[in-house]
Amino acid sequence: xxxxxxxxxxxxxxxxxxxxxxxxxxxxxxxxxxxxxxxxxxxxxxxxxxxxxxxxxxxxxxxxxxxxxxxxxxxxxxxxxxxxxxxxxxxxxxxxxxxxxxxxxxxxxxxxxxxxxxxxxxxxxxxxxxxxxxxxxxxxxxxxxxxxxxxxxxxxxxxxxxxxxxxxxxxxxxxxxxxxxxxxxxxxxxxxxxxxxxxxxxxxxxxxxxxxxxxxxxxxxxxxxxxxxxxxxxxxxxxxxxxxxxxxxxxxxxxxxxxxxxxxxxxxxxxxxxxxxxxxxxxxxxxxxxxxxxxxxxxxxxxxxxxxxxxxxxxxxxxxxxxxxxxxxxxxxxxxxxxxxxxx
Length: 344
What we know:
3-stranded antiparallel β-sheet, single chain, D-Maltodextrin-Binding Protein, domain 2, alpha/beta
């Protein structure tokens, strides 16, 4: 009887050992594959890149350090196959930067944040309610203009974009086409310094009027719906560059907006992963992970705030990744499970 038991145990152990490599391969479907990502030059996208990289590493991929690239260079490189993916695609904003025939060799996968790339104007909620502010047009009213005039020049002061930023040109367009040049003064100092001053004024009980985009630390410090409200442009009057995506300048369901839908005056973008098609064809686990990976915008804003407060080294970002995964373990493990299943 003892001999039979020993034989059965030996057989069980042998079968278990034989099955282990297959199980390990199921857990690491990317084993043996090296991926080369890129990363956008704006640091509000670094967190998303690091999370996706960590996911691929848990799936067994060897992922090289990302190459920081300007948008047009990335899109050309990923189409050529010199790079495999990035997490920083903004569409339709980036459409004009795609090379000819781009979709023959590369494509978009999933939504890091659907309609997450918002841009527009925010005003302190207290003043929105006090003066019934709905759009930029309301800054032509004397009492509104006076309330936001911080330097005594007779114009409302708007914390805007520094010279050379794309948003600077759109804001200048708005000032002109809506006839606001005599009523609003776009302050073009360094953005972080300008916003720090605006937030300080708000905390002292003063009004605030600023341009921002998401993801961004600004809307974590001043939360739409609680501290500030998104306001409308008077009507949609796009720049030449915006005309191809005019329908994306009005959006519904924006938290903390004075109206629903709201006319933002800027193109609303989906943030998506972009990858080379040959890489995707050979790596169904990576494709599935790209498709299911998605982040709540407030989570990105919170991480961006930590970076703004000084935690911006790569080591800091990796710690933020670990903290996010620990808080969202079930979701994270679910994404990995779907990716592993897709590879079978």
